[in-house]
Design a protein that fits this description.
With 264 residues, the chain is of the alpha/beta class. The protein contains nine helices and eleven strands. The chain has one domain: Nucleotidyltransferase, domain 5.
Length: 264
């Protein structure tokens, strides 16, 4: 007996939730390596998110549960950062879209990927008409087109394998990192648990290796959709806009290499 079962039985902790965590020791084995402090005063290696970097959002919509957008920027083919999250509860697609439009990066977003179920039609009453619509169409009316992400059986296991065996395999140089300002996202990975297998022949309730508990995992799901659908892109193939901060930085770095300054 270990994990939650041990704590419930022998430590008399009845508030702990059952289920084996995907990363039992996340705070020690992952948090120091796959998260970063975005404050350059504290972390000299904090990335400066270039405005011309490809930005992709993962999205998970909820009526009762939160609606989540995770915002990720790609520095190179093997380096990406989640630098923001938008988590709301009880807001309509138009209200969520208004929050996104206020972000500096809104016009730089390359695309959105979410659960394909948001495109299911349902009845909607509007003044003077009644028609079938979907959450996906409601966001599309706001200028936010959400691509169909996969939520097929076994996708959770495949995504966790992608993290463990690729993106987070080398913790000294992880390919994808999360800003420590994205507390909701980090918390979802920290709490992620396998679904208990409570079949009659499973006396010890071993965890189901294919499924996770559908609770407090909305940011995890949002990232899963874009991670499993969109390959990393290379911003080196995109020129920084003239007169932008990145344009000046690129020229300064080039001039430094040549032993001259950009100002003569």
């Amino acid at each position: 007996m270990d994990g939650a079962a041990w704590r419930q039985e022998y430590e008399i902790d009845f508030e702990v939730e059952a289920g084996k965590k995907v990363w039992e020791d996340f705070d020690r084995t992952h948090y120091p390596y796959v998260t970063y402090d975005p404050d350059p005063k504290i972390n000299p290696n904090a990335p400066h998110i270039g405005r011309h970097w490809p930005i992709w959002c993962g999205m998970d919509y909820g009526l009762v549960n939160p609606t989540v957008f995770t915002v990720n920027a790609m520095q190179s083919l093997d380096r990406a950062y989640q630098f923001d999250e938008v988590i709301t509860v009880g807001k309509s697609p138009s209200e969520v879209a208004e929050i996104l439009r206020e972000k500096w990066y809104f016009d730089h977003i390359s695309g959105y990927v979410g659960d394909s179920s948001i495109w299911r039609k349902h009845a909607s009453d509007k003044p003077g008409q009644r028609k079938l619509t979907s959450v996906g169409e409601m966001f599309q009316e706001q200028g936010i087109y959400i691509q169909h992400g996969s939520n097929a059986a076994g996708i959770d296991k495949d995504y966790i394998a992608l993290l463990n065996n690729n993106l987070w395999k080398n913790k000294q140089f992880p390919k994808w990192m999360i800003s420590r300002d994205c507390v909701g996202t980090i918390d979802s990975y920290r709490k992620l648990q396998w679904l208990e297998n409570k079949t009659p022949d499973s006396i010890d309730n071993n965890p189901d290796p294919e499924k996770i508990r559908n609770k407090d995992v909305d940011p995890f799901d949002a990232n899963k959709y874009w991670h499993m659908s969109v390959p990393f892109e290379s911003p080196e193939e995109v020129d920084a806009p003239p007169e932008s901060f990145d344009w000046y930085m690129e020229r300064m770095m080039r001039d430094d290499d040549e032993g001259v300054t950009m100002f003569g």
